[in-house]
Amino acid sequence: MNKIKELRKKNGDTLKSLAEKINYDYSNLSKIERGIYAPSLTLLQRIANIYGVDIRYFIESKGEKEYTQAEQQFMQDLDIDSEELFKKYNLVLDDQKITQEEMEFIIDIIRKLRQTIQKYIQ
Predict the structure, then answer these.
(1) How much is the pLDDT for 93?
(2) Model confidence, pTM
């Protein structure tokens, strides 16, 4: 992703120094910069926090229209934890409201699947 590389270089960081700052494998960060891997929103948020930019910096293209208030709110909602998610949305599956315990279980399963997949693609 060119915007990560541009921002990293603008701030005088190497791949390794940025990877250390965000606690991420530098070889995978290199693959993201080259477009081999797609970055997660969580990773983009970590990089945005390091450099003091809004996560939209990575998503917007030059000359893109201004975001509506609803779009801005959606962008802010992308990185909320399970408790906030549970409070904010009424999630239903098979006509039954999902409990917070079920949601945390589902999130835990997704995290474990991601870890397993990452082991196989490295």
Answers:
(1) 83
(2) 0.51
Q: Which CATH architecture has domain 1-69?
A: Orthogonal Bundle (1.10)
Low-confidence ranges of the chain (pLDDT < 70): 1, 60-83, 85-86, 122
Neighbours of 58 (CB within 10 A): 19
Residue 4: exposure state from Cβ atoms within 10 A (0-12, 13-18, ≥19): buried
What's the CA gap between 33 and 100, in Å, rounded?
A: 36
* CB-based contacts of 53, cutoff 8 Å, min separation 6: 7
Task: Parse the chain into domains and list their residue ranges.
Answer: 1-69, 80-122
